[in-house]
């Protein structure tokens, strides 16, 4: 069995317009071949549901940078309703740290929907969905490197980490898209009894572990930020790069993998 895992912003979705229409031919090709597309994004479940419905898929989704996994089964991402959510714990952490460090970070919880819309380029209704967070807090860190090191040190003592995406510096539990991808692969392996071949596509540092873990990783060009570094896996030929950006690059690379028989 084959699975395709994909980041959204700057990968399947255009960095500026958030459209995936340029990738529609490849999406239709995967659907015709029965290959599930697993969305893996920093977006919330509330944001990702309409995108999945628009594409026409109902597969599991990796949400909020891997901090959550939805749609797999009742056991995925268990939530104890008597305990505060990871997002509530993150906001409590921000309230409790020294004021000089707190002043260095602003996140979605500090902004109203209009500010989130301005920061992301999303329509206001979509920005409201982006604020419906359960696991992670995207934002901007504006302090010095020394302040960032101190901030991260405190964050780690509370069981959290931070990852840099295409737009935001995101606070989240110590997990990743790659770990969630492994859970999804294990699920489909149990379900089908077949070996699983994986393709992963992404454009930003928070995608790199997922790209490295896939049988074939694809770095989608994004002129909005610096390209990802060349790793040993790429030197070995297991990671490819698109020349085109966003959904145009996504479309081309997926069609190439289908043409070669990899997908």
Tell me which CATH architecture of the largest domain applies here: 3-Layer(aba) Sandwich
What is the straight-line distance between the termini? Answer: 9 Å
Strand order of the largest sheet: 4-3-2-1-9-10-11
Our count of domains comes out at 2
Characterize the main sheet.
7 strands, mixed
What's the quick description here?
With 263 residues, the protein is α/β, with parallel strands linked by helices.
Characterize the structure shown:
The chain has 263 residues and is α/β, with parallel strands linked by helices. It has helices at residues 24-32, 45-55, 86-96, 99-102, 113-120, 124-130, 145-157, 177-192, 208-213, 232-235, 246-260, and strands at 2-6, 37-40, 61-63, 68-70, 105-107, 137-141, 160-164, 169-173, 197-202, 216-221, 239-245. It is globular and about 55 Å long. The N and C termini lie close together (9 Å). Mean pLDDT is 94; it is low at 74-79.
SSE topology:
Elements: E1 2-6, H1 24-32, E2 37-40, H2 45-55, E3 61-63, E4 68-70, H3 86-96, H4 99-102, E5 105-107, H5 113-120, H6 124-130, E6 137-141, H7 145-157, E7 160-164, E8 169-173, H8 177-192, E9 197-202, H9 208-213, E10 216-221, H10 232-235, E11 239-245, H11 246-260
Q: What brief labels describe this structure?
A:
Threonyl-tRNA Synthetase, Chain A, domain 2, 2 domains, single chain, Rossmann fold, alpha/beta
């Amino acid at each position: 069995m084959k699975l395709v895992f994909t980041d959204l912003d700057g990968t399947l979705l255009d960095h500026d317009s958030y459209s995936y229409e340029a990738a529609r031919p490849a999406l239709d090709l995967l659907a015709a071949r029965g290959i599930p597309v697993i969305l893996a994004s920093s977006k919330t479940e509330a944001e990702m549901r309409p995108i999945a419905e628009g594409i026409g898929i109902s597969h599991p989704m990796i949400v909020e940078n891997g901090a959550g996994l939805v749609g797999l089964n009742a056991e995925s991402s268990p939530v104890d309703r008597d305990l505060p959510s990871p997002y509530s714990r993150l906001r409590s952490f921000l309230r409790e740290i020294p004021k000089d460090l707190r002043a260095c970070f602003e996140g979605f919880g500090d902004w109203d929907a209009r500010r989130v819309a301005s920061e992301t380029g999303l329509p206001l209704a979509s920005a409201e969905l982006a604020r419906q967070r359960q696991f992670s807090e995207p934002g901007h860190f504006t302090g010095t490197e020394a302040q960032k090191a101190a901030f991260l040190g405190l964050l780690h003592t509370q069981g959290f980490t931070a990852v840099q995406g295409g737009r935001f510096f995101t606070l989240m539990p110590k997990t990743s898209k790659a770990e969630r991808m492994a859970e999804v692969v294990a699920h489909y392996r149990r379900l089908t009894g077949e070996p699983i071949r994986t393709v992963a596509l992404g454009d930003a540092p928070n995608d790199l572990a997922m790209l490295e873990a896939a049988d074939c990783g694809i770095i989608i060009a994004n002129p909005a930020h610096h390209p990802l570094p060349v790793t040993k896996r790429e030197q070995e030929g297991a990671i490819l790069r698109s020349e085109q950006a966003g959904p145009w690059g996504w479309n081309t690379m997926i069609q190439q993998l289908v043409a070669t028989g990899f997908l």
